[in-house]
Structure formats: structure tokens, C-alpha cells
Amino acid sequence: MLMKALKSLATNGDHPSKRHVMQKFDWVHSSRYEFNMFCDENDVKPIFHTTSWPCVSSILQSATIYGFDLVDGASFHHTPELAARQAHSPEKVTLGFTWAGEIEKVDLQRYPSSHPSLMLADVLYDVPFFGATEHGHFTDTMLLRLYPGPDRFLKVAYLEFEGQSRMLENPFSVKVIKK
């Protein structure tokens, strides 16, 4: 019976973890506009991370996220579209997070690396593209980066996939960890 159900999911293009994610948490049909309004009303910044269903399931179940860069920073972006461009997975599932902490623009003229010399866990770093300057200052965001540490400012609240979007009834904290 279980194999038949799994085959049915596979033929429908569903991944078993997708059903698990949708059933395990209390989701409300929503839109990106409603998520942005929620963020405005709660004075938090919406940030996005795009990945695969198995990774989304892992993030939600463990309440942790990790990065693949040199210093274990997790990557986010201001919009789902820009987050999706950076995703390594052909399967695009976007998580929307709220950020209530400090945001610091990385000064690439001051630091030779896109990683600040002192990486604080409770700061969201806005990393610009190398070479994108205006009046000598870096402008366009390449990515937003969080380093391992406390989870007091980052909450998962929103999910977007296959043209559908949902919000969690009860957003919860997610901690950035080292892999």
C-alpha cells in the first residue's frame, strides 16, 4: 500500500516530503502581497531563500539552515526571483523569512572579501556585486548573508511553490548553523 502511494506521488510530480511539509505545519493560503503586508505591520524585513523540497522539509523540521560558502553563511535575498537565481536546485521552492535585526551593507572598498572581517551572528549582511558602484559606493545586492549563531531575529513565515503561496499560522525561529 505504501509503495502504491509513493508511486502515485511520483507520477503526480509530487515529492513525498512536499506532502509531509504541507501536512505537518499549519498553513494558510496567502499571497506575496499579504506576506509583505504582514512584514510591514510587524516592522520586520521579508527575506527569501530558494531551494528543493527535501531541503525545505529539513529547514522546517529542524528549525535550522546552513550555508555552503567558506564561512558557513546562509544566503538569502530581498525577492524570491533573485533568491531563485542563486538556487542550486532545479526544483525551486522559496521560503520567506522575517528578519527583525540589524542589516549592514558590506563595504567591498574597505574589505578585500565579501565576508566582513568580524562576522556577527545577529547581523544580516547585504553583500553587493563586485564592481557595481555608484559615486564610489557599492550598490546592487548580490545576496544577503547570515552567519551561524543565535536565532532571535530570523523566523520562517512563508512558502511559495508551483504558483502557490502560503503563510504559516505561527511563524517560528530558525537558527543558522554550521554544516
The major β-sheet equals:
5 strands, antiparallel
Overall outline:
globular
What is the SS-derived class? alpha+beta
Percent strand: 25-35%
Distance between the termini: 36 Å
Order of helices and strands: HHEHEHEEHEEEEEEEEE
Would you count the extended β strands for me? 13
Q: How are strands sequenced across the largest beta sheet?
A: 1-12-11-5-2
- Classify the helix fraction into a percent range: 25-40%
Poorly predicted runs are 1-12
Radius of gyration computed on alpha carbons: 17 Å
Write down the oligomeric state: single chain
Number of helices: 5
The overall pLDDT, averaged over residues, is 81
Keywords:
single chain, 179 residues, alpha+beta, five-stranded antiparallel β-sheet, four-stranded mixed β-sheet, globular, disordered N terminus
Structure write-up:
With 179 residues, the chain is α+β, with helices and mostly antiparallel strands. It has 5 helices and 13 strands. The chain has helices at 2-11, 16-24, 32-41, 53-62, 80-86; strands at residues 27-29, 45-51, 64-65, 74-76, 93-99, 102-105, 123-128, 133-134, 137-138, 141-146, 154-161, 164-173, 175-176. The strands form 4 sheets. It has a 5-stranded antiparallel sheet. It has a 4-stranded mixed sheet with strand order 4-10-7-6, with no helix packed on it. Strand 8 and strand 9 (137-138) form a beta hairpin. It is globular and about 45 Å long.
